[in-house]
Amino acid sequence: MASKAKMTEYERKRLENIRRNGEMMAALKIQSKASLLSQSAKRQRAVQSKSYKLSPEKKLKPDSPVVIRRSLRSRGLPPEGVDGVLSDDPPCETLKISSKEKVSPRVLGPLSMDDAQDGAGSNGTLISTLLSIDTKPHMSPPVKEEHAGGDVVKKESIEPRDSFDSERVKTEGFDEGIKEEKKGAVSLLDLGSMRLETDNIARVVPGRIMSVEFLPCTDLRMVVVGNKLGNVGFWNMDSKGGDDHHNGIHLYRPHTGPISGIVFQESSFSKIITSCYDGYIRMMDAEKEVFELVHHGDDGIFCLSRRPNDDKSLYFGEGLGGLTVFDDKMRKVSSQWFPHEDRINTIHFNPRNPNIMATASKDKTARIWDLRCVGSGQPRCLKMVSHNRAVNSAYFSPSGCSLATTSLDDHVGIHSGIDLEDNCMIPHDNQTGRWISKFRAIWGWGDAYLFIGNKKKGVDVISPAENRVVTTLKSSEMIAIPCRFDAHPHRVGMLAGGTGGGQVYVWTSS
């Protein structure tokens, strides 16, 4: 009784309310009804679960996609994560094919230009332009005089010099008795005169540019580029408008993957050959208005080249370290060997002697070969240059006396002298990541300068004589990183750079 006496008025009312509510719920039998509802719900869930498990079959949608996967091995790619290097390759893609109509996205056979067209405008303008070039005689490269203090010190053509002595290559190696010209190299170019004009900028293709090439013609300024999506774009810089309302740009999609190479028929500019990571090589024949199928295989093709003055053979890097020689006239493989342990990124021939070939590989080496000395089923290796990581490119200089290599180890190598024994590694940041094509240093219009992009949206100019970057081409007009370049073979100072966004910047010299 003492405890109740100590309770407050609020506590007494609370206890009274609890007691009254309990009596009311007991009178209405709410607790028993709630228990019955709970048991009924449990029985219903059990029945539903039992009926689902006893379902005799599972219906499939008639248009469910069939996923076809190509392994890294069949595509010529190493396992993911090897060496921790981000590859220039796209991730392995799956192709979804409808069960109603199984059509391969890779067309075997010719593909008409109309079907391959992927942009505005008509094919007629581009076709007539290319065919008109074919009817004109090919002009010789320009000759330029260099002055020092007002006196003419050198008159040099861009045309390659005399050929090598073939006998000495077989006995003594690369140099073949030609005097070293590195120290005496005179530039054909005034770097201070190079400019980037607004009219010389255009978005030619969608997506990342993989290959850039000038049409090697003296009377027309045309750039041909290939991107990651399989597009090939043509930009006629001399387009004057009129019916050509698309600013001289023609876009096609003859491939299904990254374009790895673009080469031209020296005897006919209306025939342009392209290769792709999907294992296909096609030739655009403007006269027939078709993209012909030249070659196809199961392995990816990562580079494409042609020997100077030879329209018969194609050389391309295929799969893991394979190099294939393809007879374009007979349309069959004439020879194949494996000069590297990993994919070949570039193939380049010495301008002074096309029998000398350089290859750059992801296996961290660049190698020089003599195609006339065949032993054990492959040419003789004259020289091997090693880097600490993958070699993106290896290009001979215009004189043929030097070799420039670009590597992911953040160096540009200059190799010159007798048998290319003089090696100099020039530091350069080559880490572009996976969204920008790997940097490749190219030679200009002589042995004096190399051009390579940088991540600050400029073009670094390297002097082999000084073994350093001597200047950087910059412009407020350049809003993207230029990664792949080509120097016009007949116009000194005309340099084209492609970006990860499909833009092309063309520098010119006044």
Automatic annotation (TrEMBL):
Residues 34-94 are annotated as: Disordered. It comes from the Eukaryota. GO terms for molecular function: DNA binding. GO terms for biological process: DNA damage response; regulation of DNA damage checkpoint. One of its GO terms (cellular component) is nucleus. Gene3D superfamilies: YVTN repeat-like/Quinoprotein amine dehydrogenase. Signal peptide: none annotated. WD repeats lie at residues 337-372. Residues 34-52 have a biased composition (Polar residues). Pfam families: WD40 (PF00400). Keywords: DNA damage, DNA-binding, Repeat, WD repeat. Belongs to the WD repeat DDB2/WDR76 family. Specifically binds 5-hydroxymethylcytosine (5hmC), suggesting that it acts as a specific reader of 5hmC. This is WD repeat-containing protein 76. It comes from Linum tenue.
